[in-house]
Amino acid sequence: MDDLLKYKGIHPGIVLKRELKKRFLKQRPFALAIQEHPQTLNAITNGKRNLNTPLALKIEKKLGLEEGRLAILQTYYEIKREKEKLQLKTPNLSLLRESLFWDTDINHIDWQKHSKAVINRVFERGNETEKEEIIRFYGQQKVDNALRSVARKPYTVSTK
Known about the structure:
It is a single chain. By secondary structure, the protein is mainly α. The chain folds into 2 domains: about 5-90, lambda repressor-like DNA-binding domains (434 Repressor (Amino-terminal Domain)); about 95-150, no CATH class. The chain is about 55% helix and about 0% strand. The termini are far apart.
């Protein structure tokens, strides 16, 4: 596990593909040697399919790799993907003052459902860092659309 951290977050199939290449082993014959469908191994080595533990153990045994190495890489990869999904669901809260959302718990905001309200609140009362984070999170177009749709009070009274 000496270089395991080097591959942390990389799909184990990519590491396997590299290992096979390093040993001058072709994927199809290797797949057949471990009694696996070549298409399955190809999907894994291209990062399109997860590597399950039983298959990881077969591969490790055949290649003489440390037991559990590929399964651990799969776990690290799944953790990385889950963290990426979570980052997409919430802005970086360390950049937003909780006082901006004094009337609600900032940790329980549905950032997608209440995007217009959040955007308007931050652009009405937030600082530049907070505005930049909201633009990064939602994208410039969504921010522009939300700000355009705000009903503005007229500054002059109509005489009609």
